[in-house]
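Example record

One chain of 273 residues, shown exactly as stored in the release files.
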Amino acid sequence: MNGILASLNRGWRRVMTGLCFVLFGIGGLLLSVVWFNLLLLVQRDGARRRRLARRSIAACFRAFLTVARAVGVLDYRIDNLDVLRQDRGCLVVANHPTLLDYVLIASVMPETDCLVKSALLRNPFLSGVIRAADYLINSEADTLLSACQQRLAQGDTLLIFPEGTRTRAGEAITLQRGAANIAVRCGRDLRVVIIHCSEPLLDKQRRWYEVPARKPFFTIDVRERVNIHEFYDAAVQEPAQAARQLNRHLQHRLTSGLQSLSGINDASALPGN
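Predicted structure tokens for this chain:
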């Protein structure tokens, strides 16, 4: 009997996951085609229009996550959320286990900036969102550093997934040096965020319909703020050397943080807990 109920539950979550993907796609198209074009007409100030676009995106992400949670597709918890919301003028760096990581973080940071892959501009569901939010594109090497400096100086937070792509299950976290380089050359602190998903879901190897046997639970743990001055002194260090040292530190922090969260969640799943 328990096996039948488990199969029915999994089948339900597979259907609801498909519907949530459809909902996400429709929402992205409506934002791009209707709402963002309306903003262009009614709001001439570029900075205010960008702020309204980002807040709209965050509100839509919260609605999407509310629906996904209500129909049993997933559940999630964000620890130390107030700390994350209060951050200004720093980089937010996180590991990247699933497709939903950006959605989870941006849903609670309505004015965050984001460094995104240029390939996403070819995605019909996301390209309009990226342009309206005026996110930074990682292929724009000539202007990227100055753009990061300008936005961080005006108090923006910049969300970066320094792995560059989703983590492969069973493989160690490996960071590209972009986030560390930006932090060093712009002289900005970094906030570490650890994302853990209790079940394999929407990772590098799995399609949307490959739902796990149990409902996935996301834990987003906001960790320490890394002081850039502990890693870079322009009087005695080259920026490249400091970036390498900082990158190693971030990789250690993300790896050890993920291991600690995995241990806590594994223990909570044991009988009697």
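Notes: The longest strand covers residues 217-226.
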